[in-house]
Amino acid sequence: MIRIGANPICWSNDDKQDIGGDISLEQCLSEAKAIGIEGMELGHKFPREADALRPILAAHGLDLVGGWYSTFLIERDAEEELKQARAHIDLLKAFGCKVFIAAECTRTIHGTQSAPLSTRPVMSEVEWGRFTTRLTELADYLAREGLTLVYHHHMGTVIQTEAEVDRMMEATGPAVKLLLDTGHITWAGGDPARLARHYRDRIAHVHTKDVRPDVAKQAAAEDWSFLDSVLNGVYTVPGDGAIDYVAVFREIPDYSGWIVIEAEQDPVKAPPARYVKMGFDNLNRFIDAAGLKR
């Protein structure tokens, strides 16, 4: 079954919290529900205690989809990572979430506005071995807790390009699943349809944002940071950029789970209620055109 969710980063940015800082959690959730969104991922304005969060989501008739967790597996072992993630794990389990969204953030520069994307970290051979071994161990631990680790490749991090996604997937065990993020892989020069086809049996979560190629080209030419690129509109909602979503979705005909609108923009330039509604309507068309099971 396909369900459409949203990430609050469409309203308020997590990496630079003054972007959409004036937008309340109440506005975010009310607008999401009015659009037809069924569930939300976590953002920095969400309480992280189940007893506090439950009535807020219930008041809007929304489920908790899951939420980003920053791993530092290059620096610490899987057992330590599990300890650090304990509160997050318990929150996810309290809401019956199925996925644990992980992104390696050792030396990441995606949240540093002054750091051009050209300065993003790259792993050494030793670090590759350490990272993939520990990621597999963490995924195995989480599986025993009833959670599926889905890896979130991301601009500005050690897993950014299609080749890096391939290497990570090849070097990790079956408990490591992929979060397919159409926007990140497209901006990184990859092909989301090819990733969907190649890893269809290991894709357990999907993030959708579209890319404006002219902005991406300018970002590369002028050596912008991730955040400056976002503020200049590199990302938008599905159907408002260059990605062929029907082609991507046709490669995952048996996918069942959440498809999440996660399109960070400047809300002053791209009012969230209007843009998320546009993305929601487009996604519904694309899902139906691709023949995915509702």
Automatic annotation (TrEMBL):
SUPFAM superfamilies: Xylose isomerase-like
Tagged with keyword Lyase: yes
Source taxonomy: Bacteria, Pseudomonadati, Pseudomonadota, Alphaproteobacteria, Hyphomicrobiales
Alphabetically ordered keywords of this record: Lyase
Top-level taxon in the UniProt lineage: Bacteria
A Pfam short name: AP_endonuc_2
Protein name, UniProt field: Myo-inosose-2 dehydratase
Tagged with keyword Secreted: no
EC number: 4.2.1.44
GO molecular function terms attached to this record: myo-inosose-2 dehydratase activity
Domain Xylose isomerase-like TIM barrel: 30-277
